[in-house]
Amino acid sequence: MLTLVDPLKRALQIRPHGLALIDGDREVTYEELAHRCSLLVGALRHLGAESGSRVAILANNGFQYFEAYLGIPAGGMVVVPLNTRHAIPELVYALKDSGANILITDRADLGELADVVEHVISLSDRYEMMLAEAEPALLGEGLAETDLAGLFYTGGTTGASKGVMLTHRNLIANALNWLASVPQTENDRTLVMAPMFHAAGSNGILAAIWQGSLQVPLGTFDPAAVLDLIEKHRINITLGVPSMLAAMAEEQHANPRDTSSLQVLTHGGSPIATEVIRRASSAFPSAQMIEVYGATETSPLATLLGHEETLMDNVLARSCGRAVVGCNITVRDADGNELPKGEVGEVVVSGTNIMKGYWNKPEQTAAVLKHGGYWTGDLGYLDAEGYLFLVDRSKDMIVSGGENVYSTEVEDILYRHPAILEAAVFGVPDDKWGEAVHAVVVPRPESPSVDPAELIAFCREHLGGYKVPKGIDIQHEPLPKSGPGKVLKRELRAPFWEGADRAVN
Known about the structure:
The protein is an alpha/beta fold. Helix content is 30%, strand content 27%. It contains 15 helices and 26 strands.
């Protein structure tokens, strides 16, 4: 039986005085990290937190985020990482839905968020005072691998976010899957530049701790800062979304740094253009480029495509790679029958990394956890060598800059506007974000001159910025529909995707 405490225990055995984290001028050894985690647990218990209590964190990457990410589950509680890009109503929903009554944050102005929880712990002052006064608690006491470790909120197909329940077993399985796919040593240096509130952003964290290696968190993404840190700390591993890689490549070509230490450059979460791979490969010739595919529900790793820099002119460049060690990938029809190689069906992932379910949503859980696996909602096929190729998304989802955007969630907001009669939201190619959110709307007869800019501003009041349409087309004829009346988004999308070299990832 393994829990999140076990990677930390091994690091303490092999490198107690070795550096675990460098965050600006702050250096934290593994011994100090473990001690501070135990103090955090003691402090939270003093506030009334018990086993199973949910504790939320709303903050940028930093050494304190690591302590919360590890310490809260190690103390038998459940960490709830909140998306810093979400609007206030979305954050309020996650806090209320999870039942978290403690919020750890680096935000100064919380607005109504402060009224939702009983305790707000500011990372700038109260957090350190609380740890200084706390009695250390024993980490891992009474923990089981099936205990809930974290609630990660994702977008919902019906508008409401879902709390993905990941157990200790799920997160440990993902760490082992990662280590089996990308071997690491205690000498590695990892730059954590993707946000830790994502399962993908925290993908390699436990694996690195298990090996007792160094991690350098980046608070907010800036390509110049990334390259400076790679050069300064001789970083050899990092992970980001394609838009990050594109920005890093542009900065490196314009203002070169010594990035010769970089050995592994991993990306995932959004479609990536072949030209971005080409430019990133030329900017960082020492690095093996690796594409990963998965979902929060798979903790998140499911497939991996290695040495992508060598496949740019190969058909495999359009694949997501093959199942990582510890995962099983099948393609199935609607009845759950496994389909032969080459036939398109829904991608199903099984393994010990599959989530426990959605928090307080049994019907939605049952809809995706069936026939022994997680039904991703992605449509694809496997070739004769087990490479996965995605062709569409059955969940009508857009992936922009590594964030999932469900079309129905945006459409729901557009329909709230009094001038809108019909709305359809879909993804269009975007050089920076992979996909951008786009809408086509039909105004009511009494409001023929509706302004797209006004609609975009209206959406921004209710949605996180990445969900807001980048463009809105106004048309006065009805949206195209099938016989049963379903909007034919494929027809609306088609002109935008003509000639695109990559459609889904």
